[in-house]
Design a protein that fits this description.
The chain is of the alpha/beta class. It contains nine helices and 13 strands. The protein is globular, with a radius of gyration of 20 Å. The termini are close together. The structure holds adenosine-5'-diphosphate and magnesium ion.
């Protein structure tokens, strides 16, 4: 069993200053049906050079959190520090400058773009917007980027629909890299791809992290993918982060009942692992009316009456590892 002690939030901060530090971040949407709690009081550090995974069922708030970090979505409350700068107070203009350092890759990064634009134009878009280089210089830079992501420069003149799903993901990665960012959010970047193609893209991301010393937030609903790629994992449920820790220990010995349930659905190749099977029943409650106290309690096999009182504070469940549960 895991050793459990109540720990102050500070216990989650790794020794070196993280590139990204989120505190008490919330995003609520006012809709005709009421207020949607998409992200609720999330605190999370992303260490420099790390790949942090963000997992959880559809609707748990992963995309909203990822976009809020770049202020593509405006937070309702909380703080986002990036490289020592507080982002929440920046003007739109200051934020535009900051976005050179922070980029996002969408699930189908090419689908949302004009199908009549050539790949070269798509990848160079950020360079043009920030007025970097001459036309010629931009073209050379795009050619180098295309090669770096494993495509050939003679493909620059083609149109997005001429590429496979995996190649389109490579184009999206090249586009995100064009401005030489320090931090990349990859939102479900491999979720739509076949397993063999997934592996190629994950290995490309690992290579790029090494070569460019990138820091990443990798969003996925598939824990086996995240386990392969990430150093740390944060598990989200109904707007809340419920568990955070180093990837291997978290996957081998999940602490939070929700993490256990998510992992029960994943085949277990490692006989030394000590996971118990726990099956998730029912579906995720409406974010318009989340349960009081612990948001997971209505589906939790171990819920106690006290779970309705308050969202549990972080409990230390290992080195640099916390879970929000009163019943570990
Ligand atoms: P995930 O990426 O984990 O599937 P999302 O961040 O997309 O989750 O969504 C979290 C919740 O916020 C969902 O209930 C979703 O319907 C809601 N939501 C997301 N964007 C908006 C928006 N612009 N307006 C209203 N509700 C939204
Ligand atoms: Mg999403």
């Amino acid at each position: 069993m895991l050793e459990t002690t109540l720990a102050p939030a500070e216990a989650t901060i790794p020794a070196a200053e993280p590139l990204l530090s989120i505190r008490h971040l919330s995003k609520r949407y006012a809709t005709p049906g009421g207020i949607i709690h998409a992200v609720e009081d999330v605190s999370l550090d992303i260490p420099r050079g790390s790949i942090t995974g963000l997992v959880g069922e559809s609707g748990s708030g992963k995309t909203t959190l990822g976009r809020t970090l770049l202020r593509l979505v405006q937070p309702s409350a909380g703080s986002i520090r990036f490289g020592g700068t507080e982002l929440t107070g920046l003007s739109e203009r200051e934020m535009t400058a900051m976005r050179r350092r922070m980029q996002i890759i969408f699930q189908d990064p090419v689908a949302s773009l004009n199908p009549r634009l050539k790949v070269e134009t798509i990848i160079a878009e950020g360079l043009r917007a920030h007025r970097i280089g001459s036309r010629r210089e931009r073209r050379d830079r795009v050619a180098a980027l295309i090669e770096e992501v494993g495509l050939s420069p003679d493909q620059m003149r083609r149109f997005p629909h001429e590429f496979s799903g995996g190649q389109r993901q490579r184009i999206g990665i090249a586009r995100a890299l064009a401005l030489e960012p320090e931090f990349i959010v990859a939102d479900e970047s491999v979720s739509a791809l076949d397993v063999s193609i997934q592996a190629q893209i994950l290995n490309l991301l690992l290579d790029l992290r090494e070569r460019r010393n990138l820091t990443m937030l990798f969003i996925a609903h598939d824990l086996s993918v995240v386990d392969y790629l990430c150093d740390r994992i944060a598990v989200m449920y109904l707007g809340r982060v419920v568990e955070i820790g180093p990837a291997r220990p978290l996957v081998r010995q999940p602490a939070h009942p929700y993490t256990r349930a998510l992992l029960s659905a994943v085949p277990q190749p490692d006989p030394a692992a000590t996971r118990q099977r726990e099956v998730l029943e029912g579906s995720i409650p409406s974010p318009l009316d989340p349960p009081s106290g612990c948001v997971f309690r209505t589906r939790c096999p171990r819920a106690l009456p006290a779970c309705a009182d308050a969202f549990p504070p972080p409990a230390a469940v290992g080195p640099e590892r916390i879970a929000h549960c009163i019943n570990l």
